[in-house]
Amino acid sequence: MKIRKFLNTKFEYKEVGKMDNKVLSIEAKNNKWTLTPAGLEFAADATKEDWDEAGRWLKFVESKFLFLLGDWVSYGLDRFGKDAISDQLDLFEFQQVRQALQLGLFETEQRYPSLSADHHLVVRSLDEDGRKRWLDLAVEENMTARQLAAALKEASGGTRNKFKGIASPSGVRGNFDLWMKGVGDRQTVLEMPEMERVAIYEELKPVAELVQALENSLRTQREQSRV
Known about the structure:
Layout: H1 3-7, E1 11-14, E2 25-28, E3 33-36, E4 39-42, H2 48-80, H3 82-89, H4 94-102, H5 117-122, H6 128-141, H7 145-155, H8 169-183, H9 186-190, H10 194-226
Antiparallel strand pairs: 1-2, 2-3, 3-4
Helix pairs in contact: 2-3, 2-4
């Protein structure tokens, strides 16, 4: 089942039993599986595809829950005020509400659909450019939220950690070696069309300039040590 079909799944909302007027069941329109206050129920003729769809829906809700909660709380605060929604907020743990509101600094267009709310929480203390840079890296490297947190910790740690992890000179070298392995060899790069070579040059130019500066600095230091 394509992700678009999954996201376009229509649901019917029907009250099956009230608990302070807040508990509803959510029923898929195809009636193959139903989320009720008691749990998840499947129709007798549910297929493997129906079962897969339910799992994807549950995972989607799990990964986006804090964003959904944050949007809900933010709208309630702005529209009705804190006093009017305080009873509803008691439905959730304080920590959940606090984290959900922290995600409010990510505008809708700044959220990464392929990443969870936990990924976004990891980088919430960075500035906008930093958040984008690290979330881009998480997407490119297919990182879990825990891996992203570890990489960020290494990159922002003391001198001992500055040469380890993805965001480090060794990480850059490792990614370069992987890229070269995929391309073939140096001669293959030199024989690429001009536009591709220009693009590669622009991407690697800051690295080349740093290497040149380091080389000059080390040469000067060695020359001075001989005097």
